[in-house]
Write a structure and sequence with these properties.
With about 120 residues, this protein is an all-beta fold. The chain is about 0% helix and about 50% strand. Strands 2, 4, 5, 6, 9, 10 and 11 form a seven-stranded mixed beta sheet that branches. Strands 1-3-8-7 form a four-stranded antiparallel beta sheet, with no helix packed on it.
Protein backbone atom coordinates (compact mmCIF):
# COMPACT_ATOMS: atom_id res chain seq x y z
CA UNK A 1 0.00 0.00 0.00
CA UNK A 2 0.90 3.62 -0.42
CA UNK A 3 0.03 6.75 1.51
CA UNK A 4 -2.13 9.25 -0.30
CA UNK A 5 -2.81 12.84 0.77
CA UNK A 6 -5.43 14.94 -1.00
CA UNK A 7 -5.58 18.73 -1.04
CA UNK A 8 -7.29 21.54 -2.90
CA UNK A 9 -10.87 21.16 -1.77
CA UNK A 10 -12.99 24.08 -0.65
CA UNK A 11 -16.06 26.19 -1.27
CA UNK A 12 -16.74 27.40 -4.80
CA UNK A 13 -19.71 29.00 -6.55
CA UNK A 14 -21.62 27.15 -9.27
CA UNK A 15 -19.77 27.45 -12.56
CA UNK A 16 -16.44 27.82 -10.80
CA UNK A 17 -13.33 25.67 -10.85
CA UNK A 18 -11.12 23.80 -8.43
CA UNK A 19 -8.05 21.63 -8.82
CA UNK A 20 -7.56 18.73 -6.46
CA UNK A 21 -4.14 17.22 -5.88
CA UNK A 22 -3.16 13.85 -4.47
CA UNK A 23 0.42 13.29 -3.35
CA UNK A 24 1.55 9.68 -3.11
CA UNK A 25 4.39 8.01 -1.29
CA UNK A 26 6.37 5.19 -2.81
CA UNK A 27 9.07 4.78 -5.38
CA UNK A 28 6.93 3.10 -8.02
CA UNK A 29 4.12 5.64 -8.35
CA UNK A 30 4.49 5.60 -12.13
CA UNK A 31 3.39 1.94 -12.12
CA UNK A 32 0.10 2.63 -10.34
CA UNK A 33 -3.31 3.17 -11.85
CA UNK A 34 -4.87 6.12 -10.02
CA UNK A 35 -8.45 7.16 -9.51
CA UNK A 36 -10.71 9.77 -7.98
CA UNK A 37 -13.96 8.89 -6.22
CA UNK A 38 -16.52 10.95 -4.32
CA UNK A 39 -19.07 10.37 -1.62
CA UNK A 40 -21.99 12.29 -0.13
CA UNK A 41 -23.70 11.46 3.19
CA UNK A 42 -25.99 8.49 2.93
CA UNK A 43 -24.73 7.46 -0.48
CA UNK A 44 -22.17 4.96 -1.68
CA UNK A 45 -18.80 6.11 -2.88
CA UNK A 46 -18.92 6.68 -6.65
CA UNK A 47 -16.29 6.61 -9.35
CA UNK A 48 -15.29 9.97 -10.85
CA UNK A 49 -12.20 9.47 -13.00
CA UNK A 50 -9.17 7.24 -13.48
CA UNK A 51 -5.82 7.41 -15.20
CA UNK A 52 -3.58 4.52 -16.06
CA UNK A 53 0.14 4.22 -15.50
CA UNK A 54 0.29 5.24 -19.14
CA UNK A 55 -1.14 8.73 -19.09
CA UNK A 56 -2.90 8.20 -22.41
CA UNK A 57 -5.45 5.98 -20.70
CA UNK A 58 -8.17 7.94 -18.91
CA UNK A 59 -11.74 7.17 -17.95
CA UNK A 60 -14.53 9.39 -16.66
CA UNK A 61 -17.96 9.02 -15.16
CA UNK A 62 -20.66 10.30 -17.49
CA UNK A 63 -21.66 12.91 -14.92
CA UNK A 64 -18.28 14.67 -15.13
CA UNK A 65 -17.22 13.98 -18.72
CA UNK A 66 -16.27 17.20 -20.47
CA UNK A 67 -15.99 19.14 -17.21
CA UNK A 68 -13.33 17.28 -15.21
CA UNK A 69 -9.82 16.33 -16.30
CA UNK A 70 -7.56 13.84 -14.56
CA UNK A 71 -3.81 14.06 -15.02
CA UNK A 72 -0.64 12.92 -13.33
CA UNK A 73 2.94 14.07 -12.86
CA UNK A 74 5.03 11.00 -12.16
CA UNK A 75 8.09 13.11 -11.36
CA UNK A 76 6.13 14.64 -8.47
CA UNK A 77 4.25 11.47 -7.47
CA UNK A 78 1.04 13.46 -7.83
CA UNK A 79 -2.30 13.01 -9.55
CA UNK A 80 -4.65 15.91 -10.21
CA UNK A 81 -8.33 16.44 -10.83
CA UNK A 82 -9.17 19.68 -12.60
CA UNK A 83 -12.84 20.42 -12.06
CA UNK A 84 -14.52 23.07 -14.21
CA UNK A 85 -18.13 24.21 -14.57
CA UNK A 86 -18.88 22.91 -11.12
CA UNK A 87 -22.46 22.18 -10.13
CA UNK A 88 -24.10 21.91 -6.70
CA UNK A 89 -24.46 18.17 -7.30
CA UNK A 90 -20.66 17.89 -7.43
CA UNK A 91 -20.61 18.64 -3.70
CA UNK A 92 -18.97 15.68 -1.97
CA UNK A 93 -15.90 14.41 -0.20
CA UNK A 94 -13.41 13.51 -2.90
CA UNK A 95 -11.02 10.61 -2.42
CA UNK A 96 -7.88 9.66 -4.24
CA UNK A 97 -7.13 5.96 -4.72
CA UNK A 98 -4.29 3.84 -6.02
CA UNK A 99 -4.34 0.44 -7.69
CA UNK A 100 -0.84 -0.76 -6.98
CA UNK A 101 -1.32 -4.16 -8.57
CA UNK A 102 -2.99 -3.84 -11.99
CA UNK A 103 -6.33 -5.57 -12.13
CA UNK A 104 -6.56 -6.13 -8.38
CA UNK A 105 -8.67 -3.11 -7.52
CA UNK A 106 -7.90 0.05 -5.59
CA UNK A 107 -6.03 -0.90 -2.44
CA UNK A 108 -4.92 2.46 -1.06
CA UNK A 109 -7.10 5.44 -0.23
CA UNK A 110 -6.56 8.99 0.93
CA UNK A 111 -8.42 10.67 3.77
CA UNK A 112 -10.59 12.75 1.45
CA UNK A 113 -11.05 16.45 0.79
CA UNK A 114 -14.36 18.31 0.94
CA UNK A 115 -15.66 20.09 -2.15
CA UNK A 116 -18.72 22.29 -1.68
CA UNK A 117 -20.40 23.99 -4.63
CA UNK A 118 -22.83 26.61 -3.41
CA UNK A 119 -23.79 30.21 -3.95
Amino acid sequence: QVQLVESGGGLVQPGGSLRLSCAASGRTFSDYNMGWFRQTPGKEREFVAAIGWSVSRTLYADSVKGRFTISRDNAKNTVYLQMNSLKPEDTAVYYCAAETVPGQGYDSWGQGTQVTVSS
